Amino acid sequence: MSTLRITLRAGERIFVNGAVMRVDRKTHLEFMNDVTFLLESHVMQAEDATTPIRQLYFVVQLMLIDPATASETRVLFERSFPALMAAFSSAAVRSGLQDVAELIERDRVFEALKRLRAIIPLEDAILAAAATVDAPAHMGSVSLPERAPVAVGAR
């Protein structure tokens, strides 16, 4: 097994196996065995979970940050995932979401978060393209320019 070494700046927090730690000065940590952690810079606040994929990120993040409630949070993931898959027609987004589900199934929550971070810019582009179209009041068919990814019901 290899050693994982990370550096934290003064005042930075890290979430390790459900515990929150804050360092008072620049610190180097070495993890000598398997550990579940999340750097503060990757933690999404609830008020920032404003889009469907960001909301899914927040749910997955909770699995990592609070292992004691991970099984209940996984149920929430399993309930919301099918609706999210149905909402997107973009092959790149759907493929990414399928990767996330497979990673969650294999208990690779940290990798699932990394995959979700990669999908967020795609969602942003989809929502930006949808915002430029005069959508009808209902979320029926919206004609977007060709080649634009489409998210149905993503707002």
From TrEMBL:
The keyword RNA-binding applies. GO terms for molecular function: mRNA 5'-UTR binding. Signal peptide: none annotated. One of its GO terms (biological process) is mRNA catabolic process. Keywords: Bacterial flagellum biogenesis, Repressor, RNA-binding. Coiled coil: none annotated. Has a post-transcriptional repressor function in flagellum biogenesis. Associates with the 5'-UTR of fljK mRNA and promotes its degradation. Belongs to the FlbT family. This is Probable flagellum biosynthesis repressor protein FlbT. The gene is flbT.
